[in-house]
């Protein structure tokens, strides 16, 4: 039975869980991962998704008969949570590393090779960015040794990535490499994004070393022993993961309901009451895996402090333009590699392009004569492009692609996918905000929160956030069950 289309009768909860229902609010990858963790532990789970589709920003689609990802297209493989979840739900044989990871930066009217030897664009030495930066820019990096040593007190509890890098290595490093790399993850502004939240290992090393380049080299040394690909995809698209997790949840006895928005949460003597439409659902516990603005509304009366913090979380919107070309037209002109990034300082419409048919082997399924690629448009506080019609975004993408690569042929098909409020922003102080939210929520027994607004926007971070929330619910239920049952095993 397909878990996204219906529900099965919930199985009897395993020992160690109190036996009451847990409602998961939100059917993105975090909500699905939480439901899977709970159901696998024997909990009775009902997942409620407000829309008619599961997966959040993971969405599989089709263009000109070929499978495509219309949302996230890869997951970090050196962090285990997402890959392990994919394996647990039967996708092990479909996991694929990129066929190529070689990329470029389109800046100063040329495609320049993506440099090596950096951490999220922050170089360990000036030579790493030779060719990408001006002579003055590389000289500025080399001159860091002339600056006073890094002051842990100045870095303090947090600092903006762009602020620290510009102060130590110059603005050109930020504008030409850090910005496009961070923009690819957060669609945000490097001069606002938290170093501690976005690049935590570099934050820690920067507090221990006298220079930023030394801190980068320390991060690189620690990662030198890592094996295997840095990223992983799924044959057919990352968008296949939500459906596989949903099927696993229903196979474990869980229930999944689509088109089921939650309008109200209420504390009761025995736990929680969840109002979805005209239905009132009694629950022992709740996992709130909704976006920050939705979670804020549901917690307004129950936890005003948490609600206010969640309401302050900003989001960036973006659009993906997916294009299908005749393979001969594309291969004749496109450079080698998986695509390119575009620094905002260059004033282009697109911020990146991925050559999907180069990056992922599975895109050839049903598309031997097609070449698939996509562009992304939109950054935080610079989203005016998103108000343009689909045809305008396609035309703007084609203009930039032609200027960057010479690809002037007309695509045989295109689709524009808009992700309004798609990416939460992690400004300086974000992790402290998350601590305050969780502290306020801790005063409501049987409630846990998870999702992209908390511990990271990548798929593994969302899954880890979900597992943390599910484990909190399971631990509380086990404690309550043991107390009520006289401590029996």
Automatic annotation (TrEMBL):
Entry-linked InterPro entries: Amino_oxidase, FAD/NAD-bd_sf, Protoporphyrinogen_oxidase, Zeta_carotene_desat/Oxidored
Enzyme class name: oxidoreductase
Keyword Calcium: no
CC cofactor: FAD
One example GO MF annotation: oxygen-dependent protoporphyrinogen oxidase activity
Keyword Glycoprotein: no
Reaction(s) this enzyme catalyzes, per UniProt: coproporphyrinogen III + 3 O2 = coproporphyrin III + 3 H2O2
Family the UniProt entry places it in: Belongs to the protoporphyrinogen/coproporphyrinogen oxidase family. Coproporphyrinogen III oxidase subfamily.
Main function: Involved in coproporphyrin-dependent heme b biosynthesis. Catalyzes the oxidation of coproporphyrinogen III to coproporphyrin III.
Protein name per its UniProtKB record: Coproporphyrinogen III oxidase
Protein species of origin: Streptomyces solincola
Gene coding for it: hemG
């Amino acid at each position: 039975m397909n878990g996204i289309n219906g529900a099965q009768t919930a199985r009897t909860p395993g020992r160690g869980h109190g036996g009451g229902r847990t409602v998961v609010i939100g059917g993105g990858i975090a909500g699905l991962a939480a439901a899977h963790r709970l159901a696998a532990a024997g909990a009775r789970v009902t997942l409620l998704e407000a829309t008619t589709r599961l997966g959040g920003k993971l969405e599989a689609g089709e263009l000109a008969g070929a499978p495509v990802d219309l949302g996230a297209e890869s997951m970090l493989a050196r962090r285990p949570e997402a890959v392990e979840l994919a394996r647990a739900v039967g996708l092990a044989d479909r996991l694929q590393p990129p066929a190529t990871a070689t990329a470029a930066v389109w800046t100063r009217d040329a495609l320049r090779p993506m440099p090596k030897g950096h951490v999220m664009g922050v170089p360990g030495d000036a030579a790493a960015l030779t060719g990408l930066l001006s002579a003055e820019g590389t000289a500025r990096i080399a001159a860091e040794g002339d600056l006073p040593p890094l002051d842990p007190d100045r870095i303090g509890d947090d600092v903006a990535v762009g602020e620290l890098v510009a102060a130590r290595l110059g603005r050109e490093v930020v504008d030409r490499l850090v910005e496009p790399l961070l923009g690819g993850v957060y669609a945000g502004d490097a001069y606002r994004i938290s170093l501690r939240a976005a690049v935590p290992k570099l934050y820690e090393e920067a507090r221990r070393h006298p220079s930023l380049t030394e801190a980068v080299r320390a991060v690189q040394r620690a990662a030198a022993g890592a094996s295997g690909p840095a990223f992983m995809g799924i044959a057919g698209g990352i968008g296949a993961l939500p459906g596989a997790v949903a099927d696993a949840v229903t196979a474990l006895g869980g229930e999944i309901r689509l088109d089921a928005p939650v309008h109200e949460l209420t504390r009761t003597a025995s736990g929680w009451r969840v109002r979805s439409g005209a239905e009132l659902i009694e629950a022992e516990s709740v996992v709130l895996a909704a976006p920050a603005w939705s979670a804020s509304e549901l917690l307004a009366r129950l936890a005003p402090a948490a609600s206010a913090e969640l309401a302050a979380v900003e989001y960036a919107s973006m659009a993906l333009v997916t294009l299908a070309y005749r393979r001969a037209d594309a291969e004749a002109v496109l450079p080698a590699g998986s695509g390119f990034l575009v620094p905002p300082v260059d004033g282009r419409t697109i911020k990146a392009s991925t050559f999907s048919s180069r990056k992922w082997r599975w895109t050839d399924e049903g598309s031997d004569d097609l070449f698939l690629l996509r562009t992304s448009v939109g950054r935080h506080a610079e989203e005016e492009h998103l108000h343009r019609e689909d045809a305008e975004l396609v035309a703007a993408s084609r203009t930039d692609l032609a200027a960057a690569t010479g690809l002037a042929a007309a695509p045989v098909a295109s689709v524009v996918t808009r992700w309004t409020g798609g990416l939460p922003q992690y400004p300086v102080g974000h992790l402290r905000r998350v601590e305050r939210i969780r502290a306020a929520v801790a005063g409501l027994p049987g409630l846990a929160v998870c999702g992209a607004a908390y511990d990271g926007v990548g798929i593994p971070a969302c899954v880890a956030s979900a597992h943390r929330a599910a484990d909190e619910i399971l631990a509380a239920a086990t404690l309550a069950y043991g107390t009520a049952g006289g401590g029996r095993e």
